[in-house]
């Protein structure tokens, strides 16, 4: 273990000792106030830490800034108090309500909020929290602004009693440990990986068959449950809760804890909560406005100076001294790499119609990007789609893959209409697309990206069994073995494009739509890509390939569709298309025709 790593571990152990041993046993005269003050601040810090962990879990994994948890932990506190008082139940059964009722209320709010992003998401969640505060201020069952009192210590469990403040403090710590364990389990699970993928690149995740709403909804529900339970603990600790404890302004303190401690480190939000609550004590101020001011200033300072938080910075410092990773061998982007033997393009009999678009229209206002396109692709085919920029190629692909609704017309896949289906649902049918600009999940390595998709594709019904299974096999088939452990941010442009195809192939599709896959590739990469596509075709994948590079595209295609101004200009075998005067005039150009004639003459001579 390196020196820095030892420092990191020592700091963690020291923090744990302070929290577990020093706080409950600290002699009162040493802090100049009664021991119970220290213990009650520490108790509150533990509860805040649970809220910070529960909120940070959602914020970190989804990337969405929620303030709804401010109201939700209030709902938890009041659910516990009201059930204790009116149902005459003890603290333990009331915890069930403190978990379930926030989760129930979170459902409609999440369904609304998750349809928005960024500022709109923030505003919707603030509105929810303020609505909750308004409700609990004005309802009679919540006892209005006076607050709800419920001084019900938890009944003992076997030999464990929870009468004393220190035993209750340990109880909060146990719940905090459970919250952190839940965060760790979610973060390390496949589910957590898919959430991070959505956070990194939402539309890429959708295109690969991941249901964004369901994932974010589950994460939001988990978070609501955790902060709800923390609300019940708050009532236990304070014995009375008032509406103003749960406003969105108060929740800034929780955000400060999350940012200060470090959002992306498991223990970060918890450490932050301790600092935030002890801060006013150290400064010697108990004016709540003063605390808010300090929180605000600190929040800005922390974001500027320690964007990864205290624990995050410490962890980064520890990792900084680790052995530098061995330089990766050059992939296809850099030269020699053993690719699977190229498959010769053989004429193979085509099957039934797999994809059919009939008079598809897509208008953007007055701009008729697609103005009645018919296209019919048969199983086993490689179909090229060419045309000038702005002719509607990408729009057609977006309509087929569900990213754009059509203005008119019908699209069927295996005879079933695709209209009304979301992109992820279309992808799960085995119809997968790539994007014109290469996209990747920024916080993953190449292998992790493919593993994520391989795992979620496994449970799907429409998988092409002929394609290789497993991330390593897919990466190898795309010539990316040597780059498998590189973070995607370190891949070359060519490798990034190939990874796009590798991720799509990880879904084991039947129909693959590629938007300019060869754009910007070196000649070596273009050869690698050609082999990948021909291998995929040999494994029963039907391909629709948009590209501008005719020397790449024409040799691999069975047929070519030419778009111009949103309509179909021509369609036919590559040779016929290359000779078609209308296509030459509209797109290929005279110089292409001459070069091609020269090449053909050279082959004959
Ligand atoms: P291509 O891929 O063939 O270069 P596109 O399909 O990207 O062309 O674009 C076709 C036309 O549709 C262009 O005029 C483009 O400006 C327009 N267009 C594409 N997407 C949108 C959009 N989301 N909103 C408005 N106009 C769009
Ligand atoms: Mg395009």
Report on this structure:
It is a single chain. The protein has 605 residues and is an alpha/beta fold. The protein has helices spanning 3-25, 35-62, 68-86, 91-113, 118-138, 165-188, 190-200, 202-207, 212-238, 251-261, 268-283, 288-305, 309-320, 393-400, 423-428, 446-457, 471-477, 493-506, 523-538, 550-556, 574-579, 581-588, 590-604; strands spanning 148-149, 240-241, 353-364, 367-378, 382-386, 408-413, 416-417, 431-433, 511-515, 542-546, 559-564, 567-572. A hairpin with a 2-residue loop joins strand 6 and strand 7. Helix 10 crosses helix 11. The longest helix is centred in the N-terminal third of the chain and has 28 residues, at 35-62.
List the helices and strands and how they pair.
Blueprint lengths: L2 H23 L9 H28 L5 H19 L4 H23 L4 H21 L9 E2 L15 H24 L1 H11 L1 H6 L4 H27 L1 E2 L9 H11 L6 H16 L4 H18 L3 H12 L32 E12 L2 E12 L3 E5 L6 H8 L7 E6 L2 E2 L5 H6 L2 E3 L12 H12 L13 H7 L15 H14 L4 E5 L7 H16 L3 E5 L3 H7 L2 E6 L2 E6 L1 H6 L1 H8 L1 H15 L1
Parallel strand pairs: 5-10, 5-11, 8-9, 9-10
Antiparallel strand pairs: 1-2, 3-4, 3-6, 6-7, 11-12
Helix pairs in contact: 1-2, 1-13, 2-6, 2-9, 2-10, 2-11, 3-4, 3-5, 3-9, 4-9, 6-7, 6-9, 7-9, 7-16, 10-11, 10-12, 10-13, 16-17, 16-18, 17-18, 18-19
The protein binds adenosine-5'-diphosphate and magnesium ion (MG).
